[in-house]
Design brief:
Structural class: alpha+beta
Strand order of the largest sheet: 2-3-1-4-5
Helix content: 40-55%
Order of helices and strands: HHEHHEEHEHEEEEE
Shape: globular
Length: about 220
């Protein structure tokens, strides 16, 4: 047996151990980027994928917030609330599909980036709004609520990064919630101003006046 063959054979266990270690690290990273309740990406995992998708000029950023979620928890219990969150996550992921990404930002707030192939994001999100309002399968029919959606077309604000687009979608979502409209597009009509990048009522924001956003 040649010296080279001997050396190669002796390094095989080390190479195999390193490959297993790399696989383990990748597995841990993927687990850390997944929300344990819904299986969606966490904020870090969502940000990583969403930032890449925003390179596509057809990208649309969506923010979704479950209406009256605290009331569901208080009335029907946390198990019912968890079931509602899981159903919302599943419906969002199914609607967005493999070409986009959905993440749970925390609590009852979700975000998505959708690739709008046909310029019909408004119509598709209107359908999604109806889907999200359906009762949860296998639960008491009373365990249901609406989900307020705010969305923004990335190409409308080319200077904004993901953080800026999420802020605009957040403003639109809040306007939809306040007006009980269900769905609102950023850049159209009256929205609530933000202070230091946060909508009034969010942590880190102060009371701000209502301002008109140019279409």
């Amino acid at each position: 047996m040649s010296t080279l063959t001997t050396v190669l054979l002796s390094t095989l266990p080390l190479m195999a151990a390193w490959a297993v270690h790399v696989w383990w690290l990748r597995s841990r990273l993927q687990t850390a980027r997944r929300d344990p309740l819904t299986g969606l990406r966490t904020r870090d995992g969502f940000t990583h994928r969403a930032t890449a998708l925003l390179k596509d000029p057809r990208a649309v950023v969506v923010l979704a917030d479950v209406d009256k979620f605290k009331q569901i928890n208080d009335t029907h219990g946390h198990a019912a609330g968890d079931a509602l969150l899981k159903a919302t996550a599943e419906r969002l992921a199914r609607h967005v599909g493999r070409s986009g990404v959905v993440g749970r930002l925390g609590g009852d707030e979700f975000a998505a980036v959708v690739i709008d192939d046909h310029g019909t994001a408004g119509d598709l999100l209107a359908v999604l709004h109806g889907v999200l309002a359906r009762p949860v399968d296998g639960q008491d029919p009373a365990v249901h609520t609406t989900v307020s959606l705010g969305w923004v077309r990335a190409s409308d604000f080319p200077a904004d990064d993901l953080s800026g687009l999420l802020r605009r979608a957040d403003e639109a979502m809040y306007a939809a919630k306040q007006g009980r409209a269900g769905l609102r597009r950023a850049g159209l009509g009256w929205l609530f101003a933000t202070v230091t990048g946060r909508r009034a009522g969010r942590i880190g924001a102060r009371t701000a006046p209502v301002v008109e956003v140019a279409a």
